[in-house]
Protein 1
Amino acid sequence: MAIGTELYRKTLLTIAGNRAVRALTVKYGKRLASRFIAGQQLPKALFQVKELNKKGIMATLDHLGEGIRQLPEAEAYRDAYIRLLDGIADKGVASNVSLKPTQMGLALDREACYRNIRAVARHAASIGNFVRLDMEDSPYTDATLDIVRRLHAEGLRNVGTVLQAYLRRTASDTERCIDDGISLRLVKGAYKEPSSIAYQRKDEVAQQFKHMIRLHLDQGVYTAVATHDDAIIRYVKRYALERRIPKSAFEFQMLYGLRMNEQANLAREGYRIRCYVPYGEMWYPYYTRRLAEKPANLWLVLRNMFR
């Protein structure tokens, strides 16, 4: 990454981690966060997904929550996801779901976490839906991949996960996941990681990201490319065209509240596009990661603050 961008990201994440800053933002910043969060309750989130569907945009719904302190909280999130899946089915919207393993108890009890995620995956399978396990920071990478493989071994193949291009290990993880038939969302990565395990330069991350994409497309594996980077989007379009890979073989994924016009444009061009739609009361960690991605996101929020 460019030094300026990386310094900005690390600085903002550090500031956001301050307890006083967090308390003030949670108290006064809900309206500003609404730029990136589709409401705090499920009905509003489902309404937003229905509006996206009208534009040809699919969705993945994420009930926000991570870093829980007690297992009953994880059970509550499990039940909330089951209600979310039922809501998707009842409204007939084009959406799957994404969840974070730590909100299901990964940091507290791995077996309890597995049981909670399995319950969600089973319910999703019963109504023909799909569950994506979001990839969190590096201490949870192996555990998240292990959970997906265990679920697949039980026949729950409607579960996939995410790999982050900025981790040095990701190239080998990508090849193994392809061999194991694990559906992946490919991303650059948004957590603060040390240089010992993560690439820090923008060109290195982009190079590995393209490598991951090629591995999928060349082997005929359905590819979900999550990016707002125009250079990456052009690269995927060009690579697919040159190799006569149909548009149905991959999808672009973008975040709710960012580049919504571009998402609609991709849909009009016939590309599959999915919007990551978060909702819920535990919005602060997600919100700060979005602001930390690039200064333009922060300026966007600041402009709205003074309107």
Note: The mean pLDDT is 88.
Protein 2
Amino acid sequence: MVTILCAGSRGDFQPYIALAQELQAQGMAVRIAGNHSFAGFVQGYGVDFVGITADISTMNVDPKLLREAGNADNPLKMLLAFNKMKEYGIYMVSDFFAACEGSDIILYHPGCTIGYYAAQLHGIPAVLASPFPMHRTSAHPSVVLYGQVSANRLTIPLSYSLIQAMLWMASKDSIKGFWKQRYRQLPAGFGMPFERHDNARQPALVSCSNHVFARPSDWNAHIHQHGYWEVREPEAYTPSPTLAVFLDHPDAPIYVGFGSMTGINQYPGLAEQVVAAIIQSGRRAIIHGIGQDLALPESILRVDAVPHTWLFPRMAAVIHHGGAGTTAAGLRAGVPNIVVPFANDQFAWGHRVHDLGVGPAPIPRKRLTVTKLAAAIAQTNNPQMRAAAARLGEQIAAERGAARCAEVVAQLGEGRNT
């Protein structure tokens, strides 16, 4: 049994579902452990699920802390937000630890490091499965500072210290408290585990295209990055009649949606800015998650959730917040991306999109104006940008990220059976 410990939003879970699907294709039994509210979502893909009962609502997390985490637009704010949130983690550690019982292999999200210590206790392989590159390298800054500082011998190592410290901070004290309560001592070799994945028994997996960030040559051989982990939808998506009619038009629309960011805080005026910019640009558009109370012109269609893998390739361009998973879907679609980052690593993905020539410069949410967004939309008509986006989409589609990473895990299973 392979147990995958996962944390985050719906978009965070999707890459791990993709990995679980490929592990099942390898003949392995798999389950995902995470917030109980995602049970139906995960099970809808045919993957077993273990619900973690402690969550934001049951722990009565201060809404102010959630807003601070959602608006952390620089590394100092990120550290402060993570430090304030860590006290709530101890309630979840016990559930995640229990979910590891009966496992042969544990894969863990970098925010769920209890997986490393549970595997160590049970004498089974621990696999770090990261949704973004996070291991130290001299090639480029980490995703907490990429594009925001000049890359040099000081900033590059500092950026990896920051990202790893934030992720370790999210679970360190919780694990310490849980382990002392249960075993009256700390786990053997207690400390940040991220750089310990340097042997065949404890590999690390990374969901990232080598055409977006090339795998650094100074990583050890047991860090595997083969492409994005793309989920396979359980059945062909059928659009609503309204959406089908809207798409049956010679002028392909643009997409606008900011994922879970608009669920954390409504950001008054954001929807009005977006709609005004679309109208100013003269483009047709599909919007999701914003503008529920606005009267929209016929050129703009509001939709409920539609699979990005189905919708994005039908767009002329996509505008989003720059979450790692949404960016992966946007780049895979082969169309220009406009990133409006709100917080955390979203700024890095916005800068990377621009550096690759497949989208305009990112527009931070705090600096968003109607004029800036309309101008960015106009830039997506550039033939060179469109050609670069199409070429990158083809390169990403040719990778087999989830399948090749699943093969690494399957080899661990074979080793245990010999």
Note: The chain has a mean pLDDT of 90.
Protein 3
Amino acid sequence: MIALDIISLVMFENTFNATTFITGCASIVGFWFIFVKCGIEGWWALIPFAREYKLAICAGREPEGRVLVFLNVLRLADNIGLLFLDPTTNLGLLYGVVSVLIMIPALIYDIRVKLGLIEVFNAKKIWIIPWSVVECVPALLWGLLKRYQPQWKVQDLKNIAADFFSGSKAKVLEQGLTVNLEERTATEFFKKKYLLRDIHMYIQPGHMVLLLGGSGAGKTTYLNAVNGYEKANAEIVMNGLNMYKNYKSMKYDIGFVPQLDLMRGSDSVIRTLMDAASLRLPKDFTKAERRARVDEVMKIFGLTPVMNNLVDKLSGGQRKRLSIAMEFISNPTLFILDEPDSGLDGVMARELFEQLRIIADQGKIIIVITHTPDRVIDLFDDVIVLAKDANRTGRLAFFGSIEEARTFFGKDRMEEIVKAVNRQEEGGEGRADEFILKYAEGLQNA
């Protein structure tokens, strides 16, 4: 942040502020040696904006660094505009307000980067105060004193994900779901970003699977890749058919229930399900056949007594069952549910998951995301654990039975497993890479 003030002084100010110039130069010297310690060429400290980005990489906060650079560029552009405007005019006042609005998020992202650097150097969080107030002092101390050393180098972060590749694909079988996902990428800040990598598994028919992972671990991205909504560099095979190659004919063989339903409150239960039947059942179904399927589904989910009730008049549990019933109309082989128990108390959630267990026992594959898994964990067969590696890429930290997961992580509760793989700044233990490597090595040795 001080570097931005130096640029303004050198290029645009009429008076020379020696104090700001000296402290800015001191920060640059400190950053030079910090970069060297972290495995980055020190001369990057001389380049405005790139310096902040490289510091974010050292801190393991590259996404925050990109935002910070963008905000600092906006700040500089705004400062340039202020030089040519009378601050007493409306336009000058507007530029002043914009400057403050940009400065606030820039300070927030700068603090995030510095907190990441504090974590990398294994220092106490109290260091955020000098880093925020007198940046040059901690920069010089951490850069010049041997006692301050990073726990890892940037090169280690770059290679850590590649070293963890399992190198083994799941065998494609005629029945069940096979997922061989090499990578799912996106382009951000003019560079390729890996959202998911190296996820391979085979899920047997009749299994109910829990999908675990902290915020940003890639759970939704993974599900969208599996159901074909957002294709990845992957081979997704269900019952011997490639999902991506046969998506049009298979899309109704997958049921997806989002966390928030899109039902019209003014429609009745029967009207809602009949509309779903018209959309999801084959066109050659007669009206009588559609009604028969709707009656069957209402019976399965206990909705027959309220079939004529308006959606808005349903209880929370009834509404959840209706949203699931809509997707179950087409009798899908793969059923995916995103927090179906959200907003339900323990009793209603239990009843809902028991119903899902009955469906799974009919030979269906059910994958569920829930933030309260331990209250119904006895109903699940397997668990998928996704975690962010050091590059913040979603990786497979575990796939197997519930008991195997407890042994693998040394945790009794599923919520404790999520805490173990979450980053420390997210309230976790920061052990994601440890378990990603452990699982990958286990596959290699199997």
Note: The chain has a mean pLDDT of 83.
